[in-house]
Amino acid sequence: MSITALIAATALLAGPVPATAPTPLTCQGQSVDQTAKISYRNEIFVKASVSTVWKLQTDVKNWPRWQQPVATIERLDRGRLRPGSAFRWTTPVPATPSTPATTLVITSTIHQLKHNQCLRWSGPAIGDGLRIDRGVHVWTFERVPGGTLVRTEETWTGPQVESMPDLSRQFLAQGLDTWLTDLKTTAEQGR
């Protein structure tokens, strides 16, 4: 047996090498809550300019036009989105074995924002029988050949969501994956 074959056989017997956790996404040096038990991260390539994607994502009052899960939204301040800007939005949540169907009311406050590059916001999400004490959400937008690479990462904290981590992570993943897909579809259609 050659040395190469021996090394390959040893690697197969040892199993896969555990992946190291990626560096958290940041906006102006600030990341999600790295101590949170509930987290999810994903990315998507969008065949559209960074400015097109940025305009869709930061025009929060028009989210319901392209994001079916966003039922309502209200800006709590005026002008361009900036650090300190806040908005309240709602999204329906189906029943689970441990929570009733409800509508989450989410109040988000922008903490960091760098034009065409990144956003970071946080806030609570509260519904009948469901509470996320604090969600922290980071978005990054990177110009790449042929379009934009959009990355997002979010964390949730609070006793209720932490008591059902797998289910919470599943709902968080579903929500962010749908958001990314809707953002891609809308940006690529030029809406």
Automatic annotation (TrEMBL):
Keyword Signal: yes
TM segment ranges: none
Classification via InterPro entries: Polyketide_cyclase/dehydratase, START-like_dom_sf
Keyword Signal: yes
Keywords from the UniProt entry: Signal
Pfam hit, one: Polyketide_cyc2
Signal sequence, start to end: 1-21
Full protein name: Polyketide cyclase /reductase
Source organism of the structure: Kribbella albertanoniae
